Amino acid sequence: MKLANIRNFAIIAHIDHGKSTLADRIMEQTATVSKRQLSEQLLDSMEVEQAHGVTVKSRSVRNFYQADNGQEYEYNLIDTPGHVDFAYEVSKSLAASDGAILLVDATQGVQAQTVANLRLALKHNLTIIPVINKIDNAAADVAATEAQIRALRPEFADVTILKISAKTGENVHQVLEAIYQKIPAPQGKPDAPLKALIFDSQYDSYQGIIADVRLIDGTLKSQQKLQLMQGGSIFNAQAVGIFTPDMKPVKELNAGEVGYIVTGIKDIASVQVGDTLTTAENPTKNAIPHFKPAQSMVYAGFYPKGDTSYEALKQAISKLALNDSAFHYTPEQSEALDAGFRCGFLGIFHLQIIQERLRDEYHVEVLTTAPNATYHVYLKQPQPKQEYLTITNPAKFPDFSEIDYVTESYVKAVITTPNEYLGAVMKLCDQHFGEMVDLDNQQDLVTLTYKLPVSEIAYDFFNSLKSITHGFATLDTEFLDYELVDVVKIQIQINYAAVDALDIIVPRQKADLIAHKLVKKLKYTVPRRLYPMPVQAMVENKSIARVDVPPLRKNAAVNGEKRSISKKQQLLRRQSLNKRQAVKSDIKLPQSVFDAILNINEPD
Q: Are residues 162 and 146 in contact, defined by beta-carbon separation less than 8 angstroms?
């Protein structure tokens, strides 16, 4: 295909505005898939995507369109997620695109995530085609939606806004025409040395790492000797191909095109998203500017559960990390849960999706500890050549007597919400120690910029935001810096034995309230035994909250009767023995125990 007839584009939209349905119509009207093959949300093929009704993973598909001007065009559609936790996936897709379709639901109008994704697209200098969807719906307000779109950007004032129904296919043909008319062709040099961007990857047990690539210059052929400019690996291309949307091998990929390459590399750490691919014999001089790495916002521990072995979990996590470059992990050891991994996520929903993908795709069951933020701990007597300790696991938090001061990671949170929810959103931010930086009013939407500690948004902040705004607000976060905080570690003891996997770090002023809530919840989630077991919350070596987990059956020593002296002596002997054996706990904790920390703010 001639370079002038290639178009690379993405579709960006708020959740449920019809992005995946429009992708289906484009594939249908370009005969990329037959009606027999077509199903709803064809590109959302993962189980978690179908279960939650959201796009999680970006995917690409090549379409050939016979235009009204008599020419054939190659349309490379790169699908994008809509949820705020997957903004990094959106940015990767946009980096491989030259334009974007901005899709807005006529029944809901411009929503928060519409604005957030538009900002991402403009950062990549993409050409924007605004489109109004669901015009066939009885509740559609096309005129109001059009006015909202025009108010987003000055250049939208005079632009033609297409009005379609992705469900019925009405006017989708106009979108197909607008793509080649408005989105520019790729700017590449077919005769130059190979230069290709790796914008995604996945792992295959037989073929090794399969990388999604966008060619900038040159030609990519099977069996070429290639190298990665950042990673340094040299390998022979096993095969190259395109997505239709299934993988289809081809002889070669040319400048401007999007496809995949089978590397044959089995070392998962060798291929990184954002790397530049070139030939080993005649490499390009300048690498493509590297992606800014995804900044993990929350951390949690993953440990094998049930019949899952540590080795099986390790293999599954390493393969999943290749497929999701925003997911990070490092091995760790817990006294209570043995060997596992400390994992970094973009948010709580991202954590949930990773859990479900491990279960559904790799058949691995994991026990997940409570999420936490990152802290820099400065010691009274610092280690040589180490200014501070970076703490992502509360169990590693030093003893309070050794600490000079602590700083916590802060983010700039940009919240876009309809006007009527402004007061509720500001109240929510104040409750989570937020500091307002800016407020911008844009027609019916308000954009609030806050400085927030990561620990305050790690648990239920986004869910609370969705709840008070009925799902109409968006949260876009960007790492700022570390700032001084007054925090303490709550250590949980069960039957006098410390359980390091339950440790949490909280603001000092909240410690007493959280400790009492936590031990109360643990009373009903810790597995019972034949004798009562104390659950204590310790802060700086002092017990600030305690409950007793009731025994499986009544105990004469604790039921108020004074007649059974022998029973009471037996209980005292058991307590004495427990205290002597409290170095290591032999209690097997179910996931419900860790969920008690996650749901600490829910009513009892």
A: no
User: Could you report the per-residue pLDDT of 535-549, keeping only the tens digit for each?
Assistant: 999 999 899 999 988
Q: If you average pLDDT over residues 236-244, what whole number do you get? A: 90
Angle of the 19-29 helix axis to the 172-182 helix axis, nearest 10: 90
Please list the residues that pair with 560 across neighbouring strands.
Answer: none
Per-residue pLDDT, 345? 82
546-549-554-556 Cα dihedral, nearest 10 degrees? -40
Instruction: List, in order, residues 6 or more apart from 32 with CB less than 8 Å away.
Output: 26, 61, 62, 63, 64, 244, 245
Domain boundary among 320, 347, 368: 368
475 lies in the same domain as 495: no
- Choosing from 368, 390, 406, the residue where a domain stops is 368
- Match 């590297």 to its residue by tokens: 290
Residue 373 to residue 87: CA distance in whole angstroms: 19
First to last CA, the chain: 63
Does pLDDT of 45 surpass 50? no
- Please tell me whether 200 is known to bind a ligand: no
Contacts 24+ apart (CB under 8 A), 379-387: 379/403, 379/404, 380/404
The verdict on residue 189 lying in a domain is no
Residues 56 and 148 in one domain: yes
Whether 287 is in a domain gets the answer no
79 assigned binding-site residue? no
Does 20 belong to an annotated binding site? yes
Whether 11 is covered by a domain: the verdict is yes
Domain that holds residue 471: 375-485
Annotated binding residue 19: yes
User: Any idea what the CATH number is for the domain that residue 506 is in?
Assistant: 3.30.70.2570
Residues 402 and 543 in one domain: no
pTM: 0.67
259 marked ligand binding residue: no
pLDDT: which is higher, 24 or 564: 24
* CATH assignment of the domain containing 209: 2.40.30.10
Instruction: Looking at the structure, tell me whether residues 362 and 275 fall in a common domain.
Output: no
Rounded Cα distance between 583 and 528, Å, is 20
Same domain membership, residue 461 and residue 363: no
146-to-107, 164, 409 alpha-carbon distances in Å:
12, 12, 40
Q: What is the mean pLDDT of residues 300-319?
A: 86
Q: Which residue has the higher pLDDT, 419 or 584?
A: 419
Q: In this predicted model, what pLDDT tens digit does every residue of 49-103 receive, in sequence order? A: 444 444 444 578 899 999 999 999 999 988 776 455 555 667 777 888 899 999 9
Provide the domain count of the chain.
Answer: 5
How far does CA 539 lie from the centroid of its chain? Answer: 32
Contact status, residue 514 vs residue 506, Cβ threshold 8 Å: yes
Residue type, 36: R
CA dist., res. 191 & res. 169, Å (int) = 40
Q: pLDDT tens digits, residue range 159-172?
A: 999 999 998 999 99
Say which residues have a Cβ less than 8 Å from residue 376's Cβ, sequence separation at least 6.
388, 389, 390, 391, 406, 407, 408, 482
- Annotated binding-site residue? 163: no
Distance from C-alpha of 222 to C-alpha of 446, rounded to nearest angstrom: 52
Tell me whether residue 133 is annotated as binding: yes
